[in-house]
Structure formats: structure tokens, C-alpha cells
Amino acid sequence: MYTIHITVGQNVKRLRAQRGWSLDKTAEMTGVSKGMLHQIERGETQPTVTTLWKIATGLHVSFSSLLQEDNGSVSVVHRKSAPDITEDNGNCLVYVLFPFDPQTQIEIFTIILKAGSSYRSTPHNEGVHEHITVTSGTFQIRIDDQAYTLEAGEAIRFAGNVPHSYHNAGDDEAVIQVVMHYGDV
What we know:
- The longest helix has 16 residues, at 4-19.
- It is built from 4 helices and 10 strands; from the N terminus they run ααααββββββββββ.
- It is α+β, with helices and mostly antiparallel strands.
- A hairpin with a 4-residue loop joins strand 1 (85-87) and strand 2 (92-101).
- The two termini are 31 Å apart.
């Protein structure tokens, strides 16, 4: 059975050990407290999307590599009944479709933004690009100080190493597909 907080904890611990980093060093590099990292590694807490991005950025790994189970070479994605991660008090739901693949340097996930919800992303590492396609609803993204409003069927691509935030100002859910490309990471 896939338990996200256990998997995340194992991956953080493994990645930290591969680097030979102490919890103090990892806290310094990620901006996540030593106590929180310890709880995450022990599987005692499920971190938020923001915390996972901080850890991924600090460890110089993809977001989904923290969520990935070792399942072999073929993956079939089934519709999940529960999101992998939530943000904005459960109004932003993140479903990992395909975790980071070292051969393609991409990961793919679906984000559902309920009406009125928002999510502010921490800037990613240099070389990370986001490709977002809106599959339903109206979606607004702010990249640096520029806002872009997209409807179903429209898409945007941008360098993810700048401040950016997602917002759904509409009355219906906005569903987006996100492809993260880690070209130079």
C-alpha cells in the first residue's frame, strides 16, 4: 500500500545520506527546519507542497522524486481517489501521474484548483521549465510580476526559477496538467 508520508520520508533520508549531509546541513540547504526534516524522515508528518518544493530545490532533485516509489520500468496510472499532496487548506490538490524519469528528465502531475484557491510556488533550480496545459476551467498564473489567464485547451511554458503562483478566480474547478522538465539540473 502506497503511503505518501512514508515514501517521502524514505526518499528524503536516502537522498540526504547519498550526499553525506547531516540534518543540520540539509536544513541549511533547504530552508526546512531540522525538526521538520526529522519528522518527515520518520514518516510522522505529511509535508505540504511548499515544504516538498523547498526540499527538492535544496537537494537539487525533482519534486516527484520525493514522492516516487520504486515500481520497475512500466507504470500504468489509475485515477486516484485521494491527492498525493494538498495545499491551501485542501483547495489545491496535486496528483502525481508520472514521477521524475532520469532518461527524459521530466515529471508529470495534475493539479486541481478549487474555486478561489491559490498556490505560491518557490522558485525552482536553474534549468527547470514548467509546461502547463489547462484541461478545464480558467487558470491564472503570475510569473514574476506578469499575470496570464488561460482557458481550457490553452498552455504556457516558462522557466521555473522565478517566483510564480497559481490562482483560480473562477466559480468552477480549474484542472491543469503540469510537465516539469529538469533539463540542466
